[in-house]
Each structure stands twice: as C-alpha cells, then as structure tokens.
C-alpha cells in the first residue's frame, strides 16, 4: 500500500458519521468523551473524507526552553499536516499562567467546533489541579474529547480525557498521532496510555 493511500485512509478515518454528531453533546456517564466503546461498532464508519474535521492543539509551556517547546509543538502540527488533518494551534509558551491560557484556547476550540482537542504538557498535580480540571471540563461539557499529550501530571478524574499520548518517534510500538486521534474522534476502542509518533513516514 502506497504512503499516499495510507495517508488518505488516515484522513478518512477522522470522519464522524452525521448520525453520531448529536450524541457528542452528551457527557457519557463514568467515561471520558471519546472513550465510551468497549467493542468495535457493528456498522463501519463512512470512509469518505470530511474536509471540515478540525483538531485543536493547545501547546505546552513546560519545556527546558521556550524554543524546545515550540519545536515539539511544531512536530505535532507537521505530523497532522502530513496526514491531511486540519489543525489549529494555540501557543501558551509566553503565558504568565499557562492553565488560564489553555482554558481560553479550549474555549476557542469549542467555539470552532473542533472534533478533538489535544492539550500538551498538562500539569494537574499541583496548585493548578482544580483549574486544569475546570479547563478540561469545558470540553467534556461540550461533548468534545480531550487527548493529553506528554502530560506532566494528568488529572485524577479520568473522565476528563480520552487518553494520554506519549511521543516517542523511535519506539517500535508507536502509532501515528493522526491514526490515534482518528480512533478517539470516532470513539473506537483504544488504550488509555498510547505511544505515538510524529516522525515522517510513520503511519501505522
């Protein structure tokens, strides 16, 4: 299978059936949005690509330097772009209070009707724990799944995020970021902790 065909299949996997969209407004009891299925759906998802699928990416403020944070965020955006996935990026690197900037970014992605929001570098283990829970809760209330990317400390409430993604471009078991997000968007069975790759040419 050619790389181009694989990329198209990944982009198509980001589709959501129109019949599923009204359900997105509901908060699943005891589960995160995007992590509610225990088995594969009996009816296959539509394989026609949807150009209106949008991924929101809230960047990380937690890196040794702002430039290294920007570089990591750029790899994520580039990986989605190569897979044909439209993404909107919000930087919080220069914010005095990253959780506040992230909350505003999540709110903006809700207004833009993002299908999934990737939030990098969440640190919900300290004094900002309640504020992070409130920020992620905005997306849950809107029926939009959250994927944490390389979190420093995930919230205790695991209904606030569909999965924690850990970037390792050298790992043999890494799955492409785009495919993983497609599984979350389509509410397909997936792990809670997933190793993903942003490397060029990695589309498994």
From TrEMBL:
<protein>
    <submittedName>
        <fullName>Sugar ABC transporter substrate-binding protein</fullName>
    </submittedName>
</protein>
<dbReference type="InterPro" id="IPR028082">
    <property type="entry name" value="Peripla_BP_I"/>
</dbReference>
<keyword id="KW-0732">Signal</keyword>
<feature type="signal peptide">
    <location>
        <begin position="1"/>
        <end position="24"/>
    </location>
</feature>
């Amino acid at each position: 299978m050619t790389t181009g065909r694989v990329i198209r299949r990944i982009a198509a996997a980001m589709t959501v059936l129109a019949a599923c969209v009204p359900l997105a407004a509901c908060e699943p009891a005891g589960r995160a949005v995007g992590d509610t299925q225990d088995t594969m759906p009996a009816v296959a998802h539509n394989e026609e690509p949807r150009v209106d699928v949008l991924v929101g990416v809230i960047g990380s403020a937690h890196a040794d330097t702002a430039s290294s944070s920007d570089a990591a965020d750029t790899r994520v955006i580039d990986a989605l772009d190569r897979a044909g996935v439209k993404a909107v990026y919000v930087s919080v690197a220069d914010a005095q209070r990253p959780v506040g900037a992230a909350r505003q970014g999540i709110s903006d992605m809700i207004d833009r009707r993002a299908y999934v929001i990737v939030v990098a570098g969440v640190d919900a283990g300290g004094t900002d724990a309640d504020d992070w829970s409130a920020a992620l809760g905005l997306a849950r209330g809107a029926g939009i799944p959250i994927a944490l990317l390389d979190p420093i400390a995930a919230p205790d409430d695991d209904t606030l995020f569909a999965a924690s993604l850990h970037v390792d471009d050298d790992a043999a078991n890494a799955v492409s970021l785009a495919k993983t997000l497609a599984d979350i968007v389509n509410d397909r069975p997936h792990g809670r902790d997933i190793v993903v790759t942003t490397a060029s040419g990695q589309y498994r």
